[in-house]
Every structure is written in C-alpha cells, then in structure tokens.
Amino acid sequence: MCDDSGVEDVLVRAKGLVKRFGEFEAVRGIDLEVRRGEAFGFLGPNGAGKSSTMRMIASTSPRSGGSLTVLGMDPDKEGPRIRARLGVVPQQDNLDLELTVRQNLQVYGRYFGLSRATARARAEELLDFAQLADRADAEVESLSGGMKRRLTIARSLVNDPELLLLDEPTTGLDPQARHLLWDKLFRLKSQGVTLLITTHYMDEAEQLCDRLVVMDGGRIVAEGSPADLIARYSTREVLELRLPREEHERAAAAVTDLGKRIEVLPDRILVYADSGEVVLEAARARGVRPLSSLVRRSTLEDVFLRLTGRSLIE
C-alpha cells in the first residue's frame, strides 16, 4: 500500500513466514505488517519466536518459508541494501570497550561509508541526543548500564535509519534509566523513525507500542493496539483478593459468578469484572472476608498471561 506521495506505507510485510532449525519450527507461518512511523511490538514468552522473527527482518537470518519484504525488498536477495537502511539495538550491548564513547560512534559511522567529517559531526549530534556529551572521551567500561544502553541506541542511529529494531532495549535497567530511554524512543518516533520492539515488560509495551502482536509457540495468537487487546481479552477492572490459603476454595466458589472469569493463584484470587468495587461489595455480602483487597485497571500483563499461560517454559 502506498500513500498519496507514492512512499511505501508498509515497511515490513510477512505472509506465512517460517523459520526452521533442523526439524524445529521456531516461527510457524506468521502474517504481519509494520507501517511507516509506528512503534510495533513483539510480546511473548521465551522461545515464542520473537528473536527469530527479528533476525529475519534484520536480514541476518534467511527465512525457511513464506514471503518477507523489508523496505520493499527481499532480504534473501538484497540483504546488504536493507541493512544499510536499518538500525539494530541487540539484546546485549556489543560496544567496543577499547574505544571511547565518541570513538564508538565515529568508527561505526565509518562502517556505513560516512566520511570522517560526516562521522565526527554525526557523533556529536548523537552524543547530545543520548545525553552523553559530558562523557564523550570516557572509556565505555566506565559507563553505567543505562549510559551504555543509550550509547548502543545512539550508535544504531549513525546511518539515520528508516527502521530501528530494538531487542529487549531496557532489560536490566533501573526505573529511572528505563524512563529516560522511553523518552528517547518517543523522540525518535516523533521524528518519523519506525520502531520494532521486543520486550518482556508489559508496561513498556503499553507505553511505547501503537500496535503489537503476542507470539506463543511460533505463532501469532493476538494482534492489535494495547487498548484493543485489553478490551478484547480482559475486562475494565480486576479485583485482587488476598485470603488465608485454607479459605481460597470457599471464596472462589462464592465469587465465581460475580465476574466474567476468575483465576485462583497461590497467594490471591483474581476476579475480572467491569467494576471491581461492585464485585467486592457482593463478595462481602456472601461472607467473603479478605485480608486485603485491591481494585485495579486491567493491563496488558493480564492479556499476556491469559494468552500464554502462567507456567514457565524452559
């Protein structure tokens, strides 16, 4: 699909996309479209196929089946041309520890064919963007985790990419560093950069993503905006009841018809309903006396756990 200016509106298009490793099928025939200027997310438990999909889009891993175009090109045939227009932020920082902060940016710019003067100028711009100008001549090893992550993102922007791939961009960072990175990603999006993000943080996906897919077992099990997914797979509110363990069975039976669904966990009972306060009042009228109760809005985490389960998959 093209807009009125003739510029391709869909930057990534996959149909029946498959990735196999021997007999194991990591990605099992997925369809997706990523539009220009949006932040698109991949959510899923470990082994869901997110990283395999990202590597195919990054043109570093060939597909095993189906069709895939990135920036209007076939990655199997035009991988170098695609990679020249991409920015990639890997899950683990792979900065050159022997170089300074500034040198990491300048040398990476040279990899993309920038002249020395252009690479120097671009490095200064990105140092300001990443709020690292005062550490420009410091060794990378001396930086905090948040600073290293900002530098990795800044480095991925050296070639002024149209499409930025971010694999778990804030894993391991403290809340302040995460929010600072979110601010940087919002700024990039406002400048027209298209973002593809994998994350384990549900609040991050809600904050950053216009649309997302939930993957499980190599398939897409849901797609939409965070608000759409919450409306489709959860309820407006969730009532959390904490009771003595021996009272869980009786309390669950008492509230089972008060919500659209309930979930009994080892430490609490979750009741999904449009009004948690109404359910709480009705539960108390039926003799349920929780040690504590909490009414909260439904979140993307509720959707994620409903679609993928609470059991840890190794």
UniProtKB/TrEMBL annotation:
Q: How does it sit in the membrane?
A: Peripheral membrane protein
Where does this protein chiefly localize? membrane
GO biological process annotations for this chain's record? response to antibiotic
Return the InterPro entries for the record.
AAA+_ATPase, ABC_transporter-like_ATP-bd, ABC_transporter-like_CS, ABC_transporter_ATP-binding, P-loop_NTPase
Kindly state which keywords UniProt assigns to this record, in alphabetical order.
Antibiotic resistance, ATP-binding, Cell membrane, Membrane, Nucleotide-binding, Translocase, Transport
Domain ABC transporter stretches: 12-242
Q: Which domain of life is it from?
A: Bacteria
Q: Does the keyword Coiled coil apply?
A: no
Which compartments is it annotated to reside in? Cell membrane
On whether Transport is a keyword of this UniProt record, the answer is yes
PROSITE patterns in UniProt: ABC_TRANSPORTER_1, ABC_TRANSPORTER_2
Any single GO molecular-function term of the entry would be:
ATP binding
Q: Which GO terms describe its cellular component?
A: plasma membrane
Report the sequence similarity comment from the record.
Answer: Belongs to the ABC transporter superfamily.
Extract the PANTHER family matched here.
ABC TRANSPORTER ATP-BINDING PROTEIN, ABC TRANSPORTER ATP-BINDING PROTEIN NATA
The name on file for this protein is ABC-type multidrug transport system, ATPase component
